[in-house]
Amino acid sequence: MRRRWIVLICCLMAVVGLGLAAGALGTRTSDNFALPGTGSQRAQDLLVDHFPAATKASSPVVFAAAEGRVDRGANRAAVDGALKDLRAADDVADVSDPFTPATVSRDGRIAYATVTLDGEPQDLTHAAADDIVAATDAARSQLTVAVGGIVGQQAEAQVEDPSEAIGLAIAVIVLLVTFGSVVSMGLPLLTGLIGLGAGLSLVTVLGHLITVPTIGPTLGTMIGLGVGIDYALFLITRHRQNLAAGMTVAESIPRTVATSGNAVVFAGGTVVVALCSLALTGIPIVSSLGYSAAIVVAIAVLAAIVLLPCLMALVGTKINALPIPGLHRRAQRAQQREGVHGWARWARAVADRPWPALIAGLAILVALMIPVFSLHLGQADNGTAAKGSEQRVAFDLLSEGFGPGSNGPLLVAVPGAPQEADLTRLAAALTGADGVASVSPPIPAQDGQAALLTVTPTTAPGDLATEALVRRLRNDVIAPTGIDAQVGGQTAAGVDLAAEISDRLPLVIAFVLALSFLLLLLAFRSIVLPIKAAVMNLLSIGAAYGVVTLVFQEGFGISLIGLSDPVPIVSFVPLMMFAILFGLSMDYEVFLLSACHERWIETHDPRTAVVDGIASTGRVITSAALIMVSVFAAFVGNADPTVKQFGLGMAVAVAVDATVVRCLLVPAVMILLGRSSWWLPAWLDRRLPHVSVEGAPAPALAVEAPEPVAAGGRD
After folding, report:
1. 175-184, 319-328, 334-343, 358-367 — which one is most confidently predicted on average?
2. Which of 48, 81, 284, 382 allows an S-S link to 395, with CB 3.0 to 4.6 Å?
3. How far apart are CA 240 and CA 234, in angstroms?
4. Which interval of the chain is the signal sequence (predicted)?
């Protein structure tokens, strides 16, 4: 605070520097499905060693004629012109002939060429993808042209998404209602946006050192925007309370950071550790998602405890400046009557009737959780992309002309020096398998040490039947032949990813539960409260899983979120949701229990501790949760079904945690447990270090007098 201008300038220089570096380097993302030890990874390793051309990034470019055959007359001339422009585009290594018997549909109306890029998939930038799509523009006046695969995906990733703007608009409204002034509203919003910008820029820069999944920046935006505003909200609320209690600006700011700032570091650290625990899966794409999201959260915490105090010092006593007349008076009345009406009255009502509250809360959560028992992890394909997008049009045209399985062929790699008779026998076995549309002739490697067969399923990559086909080929078709062959390709990798996540999810859950138990044990010196918190968080996350399953997998209300048909639950979504939501729900748990613990230390009355804790935190936690829910729910409007799943699932979980759990279950359970809520064995009490979430209270803070602030009294 004493050096606010220096610190502010350093912060802004760091943010601008990261932004310039990110802009210069460009976005570099890749959905790397490397899965050590799986069949798809062994197949991929064989391709890298013996068929390097097959491992390069490639995408189909599909041409469809409105009239006549695509390979004749003006239609063919348009395709030839597009091929010429594609071959001249930067980053394009090769463009295949679209006029072979295998690449022209039976009716002659649809054909496709495969564009092979110079580098790996993660090397493709948005600008390069745009150039490749633009190379087909001349042909679009004559034909329907669509670029699928990674090129179409990268090009579509730049389409403007209103989700962030919608989330910000709702956050502005909530903050105005909460604080009643433009300045108080603007500080958390400005802090959150600057922190988000710095976090995303850092993720972009690190994307050139580590693999960042395509969905990583969007997921980081979703989380960073929510927690960044929320953390600043908690600090601004405490600062305003301190000023209202008679503290000077010079005393309030350091005391605010020493209390609420300490809690923000504790809560944010929990989120970061929970996200980093995803590395325990040993799955690169999941670990990368965890790291990238953790970076954004860590920067949000730094912005709250470093940048925000500078801004509060600069604003000084004008924290309530530019009041909105009606809202400002309402906010003042709410703050003054906090212990009498509203949340205090609700807390006393639950305390008087804990059993009905407990039963009602459990009934709601159990009802929401029921669909989760039919949850099936799968993979999304381009058939779930937004209608009219490049990859969706390409997917639909390929399905129409060559069958849905052409969008995700399986690659069967045979190591060693396979004999021709063995390959013929393997091809015959694959051709006769149920669910196989066609099998290409075996292609030997140039060194003669491997062979490759391409299997086209009859069903789309994301179809459950395709998943069953992969397992059937491995266990019932290839294994009986005695030939050592591995089934790979993007579709098989998706099947293996779902299986690996299902196997390793319990490990991540156990680690996060153990970590949260230890942290809460140290913070609140109770055995019962950490167990209660873990159970409540699991219930709220289970309810979110149930809603996501009901909507996306079962199709209930699917049209309301912009989809026409049910889509698979992407395999890594539940795992990521667990780590994110467990960390976020711990935020509210920490702030609530901190208030309850403070009153327990003062009164040793369990009922008073619960009632006063809920009364003092109800308004600010509700505002924070409403902001978080609004930000997450806004991303349901994103065109990507995977983003929709994250947005809906996390919005539901936070809403349930802030209402059913915090308003019904937590107070009811703590009231029923009474003094047992704070029980800690004496022997453990002696051995545990003393940790205070909001810092130890002090009679005074020695703070050097700051430079004079703008004149004006407190509102």
Report:
1. 358-367
2. 382
3. 10
4. 1-21
Per residue in 136-167, pLDDT (tens digit) is 999 999 999 999 888 887 776 555 567 778 88
Question: What is the Cβ-side half-sphere exposure of residue 579, based on CA atoms within 13 angstroms?
Answer: 30
Contacts 24+ apart (CB under 8 A), 384-389: 384/462, 384/563, 384/567, 384/568, 384/641, 385/156, 385/639, 385/640, 385/641, 386/156, 386/562, 386/639, 386/640, 387/564, 389/152, 389/156, 389/159, 389/639
Whether 340-373+512-685 shares its CATH topology with 409-488 is answered no
User: Looking up tokens 């899983």, which residue turns up?
Assistant: 545
**Spatial distance between the Cα atoms of 621 and 174, rounded to a whole number of angstroms:** 12
CATH among 3.40.50.970, 3.40.710.10, 3.30.70.100, 2.40.100.10 for 409-488: 3.30.70.100
Q: 340-373+512-685: which CATH topology?
A: Multidrug efflux transporter AcrB transmembrane fold (1.20.1640)
Give the residue carrying structure tokens 């009498």: 340
- Find out whether 190 and 235 touch, Cβ atoms under 8 Å: no
Radius of gyration of the chain (CA): 29
Cβ-proximal residues to 91 (8 Å cutoff; 6+ apart), any chain:
117, 118, 119, 123, 124, 128, 131, 132
Token code pair at residue 313? 């010092």
- Does residue 472 contact residue 465 with C-beta atoms inside 8 Å? no
Predicted TM-score of the model (pTM): 0.84
What's the longest Cα–Cα distance across the chain? 92
Q: Are 639 and 386 in contact (CB under 8 A)?
A: yes
User: Helix H segments across 26-125?
Assistant: 39-50, 73-88
Name which CATH class applies to 1-30+167-324. Answer: mainly alpha
Match 């988000």 to its residue by tokens: 196
Burial grade of 273 (CB within 10 A; 0-12, 13-18, 19 or more): middle
pLDDT greater than 90 at residue 270: no
Domain ranges of the chain: 1-30+167-324, 39-156, 340-373+512-685, 409-488
Tell me if 230 sits within 8 A of 221, measured CB to CB. no
39-156 CATH fold? Alpha-Beta Plaits (3.30.70)
pLDDT tens, position by position, 428-486: 999 999 999 999 999 999 888 999 999 999 999 988 899 999 999 999 999 998 899 99
Beta bridge partners of 569: 377
